TrEMBL record:
<dbReference type="InterPro" id="IPR036909">
    <property type="entry name" value="Cyt_c-like_dom_sf"/>
</dbReference>
<keyword id="KW-0813">Transport</keyword>
<dbReference type="InterPro" id="IPR002327">
    <property type="entry name" value="Cyt_c_1A/1B"/>
</dbReference>
<dbReference type="InterPro" id="IPR036322">
    <property type="entry name" value="WD40_repeat_dom_sf"/>
</dbReference>
<feature type="repeat" description="WD">
    <location>
        <begin position="11"/>
        <end position="52"/>
    </location>
</feature>
<dbReference type="InterPro" id="IPR019775">
    <property type="entry name" value="WD40_repeat_CS"/>
</dbReference>
<keyword id="KW-0479">Metal-binding</keyword>
<dbReference type="GO" id="GO:0009055">
    <property type="term" value="F:electron transfer activity"/>
</dbReference>
<dbReference type="Pfam" id="PF00400">
    <property type="entry name" value="WD40"/>
</dbReference>
<keyword id="KW-0853">WD repeat</keyword>
<dbReference type="InterPro" id="IPR015943">
    <property type="entry name" value="WD40/YVTN_repeat-like_dom_sf"/>
</dbReference>
<dbReference type="InterPro" id="IPR009056">
    <property type="entry name" value="Cyt_c-like_dom"/>
</dbReference>
<keyword id="KW-0677">Repeat</keyword>
<keyword id="KW-0249">Electron transport</keyword>
<dbReference type="GO" id="GO:0046872">
    <property type="term" value="F:metal ion binding"/>
</dbReference>
<feature type="repeat" description="WD">
    <location>
        <begin position="140"/>
        <end position="181"/>
    </location>
</feature>
<protein>
    <submittedName>
        <fullName>Cytochrome C</fullName>
    </submittedName>
</protein>
Length: 440
């Protein structure tokens, strides 16, 4: 197991914000899930995070991923599916698509034989993981809002769900039947973790509340320090003695579960904390958010925070340009596309040399079948058409999110900008200008 000094400060390799992070029980591997449509399996060796496999196959942002046992992992995505990955090969072994609404989180039981997914279709789903395959066992209904979070009771007999309707519910893990709503919060519940005592559940809500609820009585037995923005993540240590809450306010609170004393607090300078995991030695919290990488915060012995970058994350760099097309690109496209030959692992293919390219033809990029089959070339007209009618109409089945730019002036400005910025000749000119400026 890696010790405090051996946890890498950063895990770099994603091409978009990171939504979740998980650590294997032996502390040697890490899984991260990203907006870039991929998950990554990392190995930790000698203070470095190495990419073992990029898990590619989801058709939208990957919201959560967990180890299922030594050799498998499960992940859920905005594409409405749960996938099982063979971690030896990095291949998708099995996948179940529940039909559209996004799945936000996933949990795995103690022995890795069951998985649970939380869906925005107002249901949770229970699956068996057997012989490298996923099989759906039950659909857990009865919620009046999106299901945001799910967990197994430690003995495996019960399932807890948390919903935007404010309810935390208990289901029978064998039959999938609803037993009861154990707690009703006035606001949506975003995250839950069943405590190892089997008697309580930790929750975090959209109003910033963090608390501990008794499963038997439904009473809130402990009110914990609230966040100023919605609570987005919770983590429990492997031995159950530490817990952490992370919020939209960028704060991470590290607590002892023995007396619920606040041990340390940290503020992530780069925005919300979407995902967290406590290392098995209880020294470090790995956390994820708007950055394209996972960061480590050493809690014990506490390291003073040193700003990681002078650069603000790329997506905040609102261009100081007056070109409306460039502005559109920065706001609506740059999180998934580059304009340079390197796609930087973003969710979409690079748009470098786009004009004149046959749709779906860039070598090495995993296009959807819809784009591979498309039989046209990108021109000013076809790009404009794509955003006039939307990718769902022009290339039905595409992995590109539904978006339209109905205003033809904005669309023309975007196309004109793309025409210039994706042209290799224009780019070398730009480089020359930059070089000259550098010489000044
Ligand atoms: C959330 C991520 C995301 C955003 C935002 C996004 N795209 Fe895409 N884009 C993709 C993905 C993924 C594909 C590949 C689609 C497929 O294979 O079905 C794609 C494909 C494309 C293609 C086809 C490229 C080819 O090689 O055939 C073009 C053109 C494109 N995007 C332009 C844009 C523009 C312009 C914007 C902004 C207005 C934009 N995209 C915003 C993810 C995104």
């Amino acid at each position: 197991m890696a010790s405090a000094e051996e946890w890498p400060a950063r895990f770099e390799g994603h091409g978009g914000p990171v939504k979740s992070v998980a650590i294997s029980s032996d502390g040697r591997s890490v899984l991260s899930a990203s907006f870039d449509y991929a998950a990554i399996l990392w190995s930790i060796e000698g203070g470095e995070a190495k990419i073992v496999h990029r898990l590619i196959g989801h058709e939208a942002a990957v919201n959560d991923a967990h180890f299922a046992n030594g050799t498998f992992a499960v992940s859920v995505s905005d594409d409405g599916s749960i996938a099982l990955w063979d971690l030896e090969t990095g291949e998708m072994a099995s996948r179940i698509d529940e039909g559209g609404d996004k799945m936000l989180s996933v949990a795995v039981n103690e022995d890795g034989s069951r998985a649970l997914a939380a869906s925005w279709d107002r249901n949770a789903y229970l699956y068996a993981i057997e012989e490298g395959k996923l099989t759906r066992l039950a659909k857990l209904g009865g919620h009046r809002g999106n299901v945001n979070s799910v967990d197994f009771l430690p003995d495996g007999t019960g399932i807890l769900t948390a919903s935007y309707d404010g309810g935390i519910r208990l289901f029978d893990a064998t039959s999938g039947e609803l037993e009861r709503e154990i707690y009703a919060h006035g606001w949506g519940v975003n995250v839950i973790k069943a405590m190892p005592d089997g008697k309580t559940v930790l929750f975090g809500a959209t109003d910033g509340a963090v608390g501990l609820v008794s499963i038997e009585t439904g009473e809130e037995v402990k009110v914990l320090p609230p966040h100023e923005r919605p609570v987005l993540s919770l983590a429990l240590s492997t031995d159950g003695t530490k817990a952490a809450s992370g919020g939209g306010d960028g704060k991470i609170r590290f607590m002892s579960t023995l007396d619920w004393a606040l041990e340390e607090e940290f503020e992530n300078p780069y925005g919300p904390v979407w995902g967290m995991a406590i290392t098995p030695d209880n020294t470090t919290v790995l956390y994820a958010g708007l950055d394209d990488h996972v960061n480590a915060w050493q809690v014990s012995p506490r390291k003073p925070f040193e700003p990681i970058d002078n650069d603000f994350p790329r997506r905040f760099q609102v261009s100081d340009t007056d070109d409306p097309g460039e502005l559109q690109f920065a706001r609506k496209c740059s999180v998934c596309h580059t304009l340079k030959p390197d796609d930087a692992n973003r969710a979409g293919p690079t748009l470098y040399k786009l004009f004149g390219r046959k749709a779906g033809s860039l070598p090495g990029y995993p296009y959807s079948d819809a784009l591979k089959r498309a039989d046209f070339t990108w021109t000013e007209e076809t790009v404009s058409n794509l955003f006039d009618h939307g990718p769902d109409v022009v290339t039905p089945g595409s992995k590109m999110p539904i978006q339209r730019l109905k205003d033809h002036k904005t669309r023309d400005a975007l196309v004109a900008f793309l025409k210039r910025a994706t042209d290799p000749a224009a780019q070398s000119e730009e480089d020359v200008t930059k070089q000259k400026e550098g010489e000044k």
